[in-house]
What we know:
By secondary structure, this protein is mainly alpha-helical. Helices cover 65% and strands 9% of the residues. α1 packs antiparallel against α4 and α3 runs antiparallel to α5.
Amino acid sequence: xxxxxxxxxxxxxxxxxxxxxxxxxxxxxxxxxxxxxxxxxxxxxxxxxxxxxxxxxxxxxxxxxxxxxxxxxxxxxxxxxxxxxxxxxxxxxxxxxxxxxxxxxxxxxxxxxxxxxxxxxxxxxxxxxxxxxxxxxxxxxxxxxxxxxxxxxxxxxxxxxxxxxxxxxxxxxxxxxxxxxxxxx
Length: 185
């Protein structure tokens, strides 16, 4: 508990202002051992898997929402007398982003079919976080100057994507975990 003897909470700066960050300290705070050894390791592993799945699902949603905003913008923003989405380069970029989002959604669907095993959780963490960062970065560019506005939804999603993409580990950390699982076979 935050009011326990020796417990401290220190606010940390956060890229995603809707998700405050804190450092918890428990110097000389009384504690009760709930598990140790293999039981503790198993509980930590299950918590890590659940975190990967939850943040992966969030990243899929962020990527999907950023894509929807961008497609809507491409339909409604006109340049040279026609919607900007009618220009080939923009249409190809939106098609690529759609594929990126669908790959992340497929990884999320795979997690549910596998019952949330470790391999599928790490796969989701890689695909979803990369999709969220890629799609939100492109959304900023495709929205033009307004996309760089701090309060604009595309920018809010960009910050959310970057923050969520590293909370449970970077994509490279998850790839290393996947390689370790393959080596265990």
